[in-house]
Amino acid sequence: MPKTKMFILENQNIFKLIVLISSIFAALYWKFIFLHKTYIFADIGGDTIESYVPTYTQFIRDLKSFSFNLWDFNVGVGASKFAAVSHVFDVFLLPMLVFPTSKIYIGLVFSLYLKTLVTGIFFYKILCLYNIKDTKIKIVCSAVWAFNGFMVLWGQHYFFATFVAYFTIIMYGLELLLRKGKPYVFIFSIFLLAVQSVHEMIHITVFGAMYSIAHVLYYSNSSLKAVFLKLLNVICCYTLGLLLSMLSFLPQLIVLFESPEGGKPFSLNQISIYSFDIILQNIATFISNNFFGVGSSYFGYFNYYEKLQQSTSILLLLFCFIALAEIKGNSKKLRNLSIFIISIFILSTCTNIISYIFNLFQLPDNHRYTYTFSFIICLFGCLSLDSYLFSNSKQKFVEKTSTYFNEVLLTIIFIVSIYSMFLNTNNDLKYNLKLMLYVFLVWVLIVAYKYLISSYINNPGKRRIVSNVLMSMVIVEIVLLNYPTMNLRNFAEINHYFKDPSYKIVNEIKALDKEFYRIVNDNPLTAHNDSLLENYYGVTTYSSLNNRSYINFSSETGFQYWIGGKKIGFVHHNLADRRLLDFLGVKYFLQSHKESLNNTEIALADGNYHLLKNNDYYNFGTFYNKIINYDGISDYDPEVKRDILLDNAVVSIKNQNIVNANYKIEDNYKNLDYSFSRKSGVLVESQLNNKIAYVVEGTDPNVQVDLNISAQNDSFIEMIVECAKQQDIQIFWKDDKNEFSEANSTRIPVTAGKHKINVPIYINGSDTINSIRIDVGQPGEKINLSDIRIYERPNVTAMKSTKIPLNITSFKETKITGNIEISNNGMLVLTLPYDKGWHAIVNGVEQETIEVDFGMTGIYLKPGSYDIELYYKNFYFTIGIIISGITLFGIILYNLIINTKRKVGMKNFKGN
Q1: 85, 252 in Cβ contact below 8 A?
Q2: At what angle do helices 104-129 and 53-64 cross, to 10 degrees?
Q3: What Pfam families does this protein map onto (predicted)?
C-alpha cells in the first residue's frame, strides 16, 4: 500500500477532527475571519490594545528585518526584551509573517486557529493513549477541550492560548513518558513553554507534579522503589527541558528575582473563604463563562475575567461528576483519586488556598491556571462517557446519577439567576431579559441531555441515532455557550487604530530628523505601547513590569500607572509633568488637537494633527557638573525631584566616594514669614510663623495668608496637614487685582492623619500672587497646618543652557557611540534605565556605570575630551545559551551512543 494512502488511513480521524474544529471555529469567529470585526477588544481585557498588538507588531517587524535585539528602546524609555518575553518566543506568531503589520488583526485570528487545532489534536492523542475505543467520543471531546472556556475567553490575550496549546502537548508527552518511556515529546514541550514564560511554568509544574504522582500511584502495582524511579524519570526529563530553555528561562528568572514585584511574603491570614457572590460565580463558570452576560453587564464586575474559567460542556461535566461520584466502588485507588479531585474543585470554588498553591503562595488573585481544571473535566468526562454510556455496564447507575446531577444543576441555575436578577442588576430590564434567555438555553440543554441519555439506555435499537444526536448537541453547545464571549463585545475600530493619521507624521519626522529623540502622542485612542506599534521612541509603556530601575524612577518622580495594585510604568504623557518629559528627551509633541505649549514650535502638520518641536528637551546624554546625594533629597516631593534632575545628577550614598558628591543643592523653597491675617469659622489654639492649630466652629472654615514675598506663576504651595477625618482640602490664590475664585483654586483629597501635600499654582494673566486661602476641616475637628512654604520652579531654558550634551554619532538598540568635551568634574547622565548589561567604553577603556537619578545610568568624568561607546550584553543570556547548548549536545550524544549500541546489538544478534 502506498505510504500516502497508509498515512491517510491511519490519520483519517485526525482529519475529521480538523474539519470539525475548523467548522466550529468558523461559526465562532466568522466576524473576525471575514473582517466584519477586529480581533482586538476595547472593553474589559483591553490589554490587546494596550500591550499585545503593539508588541506583536514590533516582533513581526523585527523578524521581517532579520533583527533581534536584547534591548528595546521602543518600550517606555528602554527595557530588556526579557521583561516581556512571553510575547517574544511564541512560535505561533511565525505564520503571521505572511501578513503585513498593518493587517495583524487578521494574523491574530489565524494564529489562534492554529493553537486551537494543536490543542484539539494533541488531546485526541492523549485519549488514544487512554484506549478510548469510540472514535466519535474522542473527536467530539477533543473539540470540547479545544474550545474550553479559558481558551475562548483568554485566547484574545493571545499568549494565554499559547499556554493551553503547550500544556496539552506537555500532557501528551507526560503520558508517553509514563506509559511507554518515550521522553522526547515531554522534554521538547517543556522547552517550548519554559522559553516563553516563567510564570506559567509555575502553574504547569504544580499541576504536572500532582498529575504524575496520581498517575503513577493509580496505574502502578510495583514496589515503592519502582514508583520512585518512575517519578525520578519524570523529574529528570523535566529538568532537561528546563536546561534546554535556559537561553531564555535564566534571564527571565533573574529579571523576576530582581524585580520589586517578584512576590509578596505569605502568611496564613491571607487564606480566606470567598464571598457568597464569588462562590455563585465560580459555580456558574462550570456551566458557562457567559452565564451572567458579557461586556460591562456581567455579574460581579471583572470576575468574568479574573476568577475561575472552567466551562467545557454540560455533557462532559455530567459524566465527570458520574466518574467522581463513584467513590463507593471496589477500587480504593479510584476512591482516593476521586476524593482528591472533588476536594480540589470544592476548595478552588470556595477559598483562595488552591490559587495560592498553584502560584507557589504568591499572587492569590491569579486564576490563570484554571484551564488545568477544564482538562480534568474533559479527561474524566470523556473516560466516563466511554466507560459508562457506550458499554452495557452500570447504565442504571448512570441514569440515576445523571437525574440527580441534573436536578442539582437546575436548582443551582435557578438560585443563581434569581439572585443575580433581583439583587445584582439594579432592575436592568434589558440585561434581565438576556439573562433569562441564557438561563433558559442552559436549562434546555440540560433537559435535552437527560432525555437523550435516558433514550440511549432504554432504547437499545436506537442507540446509534441517539449517540449521533448526543454528539451533535455537544457541538451546538460549544457554539451557543461560547459565541457571546467573542461576539458581544466592544471592538477596536481599524480607522481609529491602524489608520491613525499620526502614522504619517511619525514617519515623516523620522525621515527628516535622524537623531535620537523621543515623541509623545496625545491621541486619546493611543495605547501605552504606541511607540512599539508605530516604531518610534516614546516614554510610556505597559509591559516593562519587571524592570526595577524603570519602576523606581517612575515612583520617585511621581509618575506611575497602577493596574491591580501594580506599578507598570509612566502614565500617559498628557498627565505628566512637562519638565520630566524635557529631562527624558522628548523632542516632539504629537497633538491630535493643537494646543499652545511653552517654548515649542510647529514642525509638521496634517489636518488636525500637529507635531510640535520642544526647544527645552535634554539630549539622551547630558553632562552635569553638580552632583548631590540622594539622602539629601529623599524626603522631597516628586515635583521638586523633577526639577532637581534638570540641574543636578543624583547618586546614591553608596556611590558618594566614587564621584565626590560634595555639591549642596540650592534651596528653591521660600519659607513664609507672616502672620495669618484672616480666619473664618475657626477657633485658633496656637499660631506661629509657618504653622497654625485650630478647632473648626463653622461650616466654611478657612485661614488666609497675606504673603510677604512674591510667588511666580510657575510655583507650588507645600504644607503639612494633620486632620482626624478623610476629607478634601481646597487652596485658593490671588494677586492684588483679583479676588479668590474657584477658577484659581485646587481641591485635593487628604486621608486622616499627618500628610505633606503640594499644590501647583496657575494664575492666568498674572506673574505673582500675594494671598492664599486654605479651606479644610469639619465641625468640631482639630486641624494642624505647618511648614507652609512656596516652592519656585527654576527656569528650564536657563538650566539647560549650562549643560553639555553628548554628541551621538551612532545609535542602535544595543550599541551607542558619541563624544563629549568637558572642563569640570561631573556626571554624564544617560536617560537609559540602569541595567548591569549596559557597559561603557571611555577612550578605549571600560569604565563602571553608576545608577543615578533614581534609576538612570551615569558615567563619572573628569575634564577632557572623550569618545564613548555603550554596548549591551546580557550576561545571563550568554550563560543560558551555554547551558542550553551543552544540554542539547548531551542529548544528541546520548542518542548517538544508544543508537550505536542498539545497532551493534542487532548485528551480534543476527550473527548468532
Answers
A1: yes
A2: 90
A3: YfhO (PF09586)
CA distance 382 to 127: 8
Cell triple for 445: 440543554
**b/e map of 576-600 (b: 16 or more CB within 10 Å)?**
bbbbbbbbbbbbbbbbbeeeeeeeb
Separation between Cα atoms, residue 82 and residue 257, nearest integer Å? 13
34 three-state secondary structure: coil
Q: How confident is the model at residue 329 (pLDDT cuts 50, 70, 90)?
A: low
For the record, the C-alpha cell of 837 comes out as 548589561
Q: Cα separation of 859 and 876, whole Å?
A: 23
Q: At what angle do helices 395-423 and 314-325 cross, to 10 degrees?
A: 120
- 737 backbone dihedrals φ, ψ, rounded to 5°: -100, -10
C-alpha distances (whole Å) from 372 to each of 238, 479, 898, 904 are: 18, 21, 36, 44
881-886-891 Cα angle (round to 5): 125
Identify the CATH assignment for 623-667+798-872 out of 2.60.40, 1.20.1250, 2.60.420, 1.10.3470: 2.60.420
Q: Judge whether 307 and 274 are in contact, CB under 8 Å.
A: no
**Residue 840 pLDDT grade (very low, low, confident, very high; cuts 50, 70, 90):** very high
Query: What is the maximum alpha-carbon separation in the chain?
Result: 115
Residue 843 pLDDT: 96
Sheet holding 807-812, edge to edge: 807-812, 815-822, 864-872, 838-842, 845-847
Helix (H, G, I), strand (E, B) or coil at 846: strand
Q: Which residues of the chain form CATH 2.60.420?
A: 623-667+798-872
- The 3 state secondary structure assigned to 261-279 is CCCCCCCHHHCCECCHHHH
CA nearest to 55, candidates 35, 85, 32: 85
CATH architecture of 669-792: Sandwich (2.60)
User: Are residues 132 and 382 in contact, defined by beta-carbon separation less than 8 angstroms?
Assistant: yes
Please list the residue range(s) of the chain that carry CATH number 2.60.120.260.
Answer: 669-792
Question: Which neighbouring-strand residues pair with 627?
Answer: 649
Asked if 810 contacts 868 with a C-beta cutoff of 8 angstroms, the reply is no
| Of 588, 624, 623, 592, residue with least CA distance to 609 | 592
Q: What distance in Å separates the CA atoms of residue 593 and residue 609, rounded to the nearest whole number?
A: 6
- N-term to C-term CA, the chain: 33
What one-letter code names the amino acid at 892? I
Residues ≥6 apart with Cβ < 8 Å to 794: 643, 646, 647, 668
Rg (CA), the chain: 33
d(CA 98, CA 608): 34
Contact 558, 638 (CB under 8 A): yes
Half-sphere exposure of 894 (CA within 13 A, CB side): 9
- Residues 6 or more apart whose Cβ sits within 8 Å of residue 534: 502, 503, 506, 521
What nine digits make up the cell of 904? 551493534
pTM to 2 decimal places: 0.85
Average pLDDT over residues 35-39: 83
Q: CB burial class (10 A; 0-12, 13-18, 19+) of residue 119?
A: buried
pLDDT of the residue at 296: 46
Cβ-contact 110, 32 below 8 angstroms:
no
What is the rounded average pLDDT of the residues 276-302? Answer: 66
Q: Are 141 and 382 in contact (CB under 8 A)?
A: yes
pLDDT band at 303 (very low <50, low <70, confident <90, very high): low
Q: Which of 458, 445, 463, 456 is nearest to 406 (CA)?
A: 445
Asked if 658 contacts 636 with a C-beta cutoff of 8 angstroms, the reply is: no
Q: Which pLDDT score, from 0 to 100, does residue 28 have?
A: 92
Find where cell 477625618 sits.
725
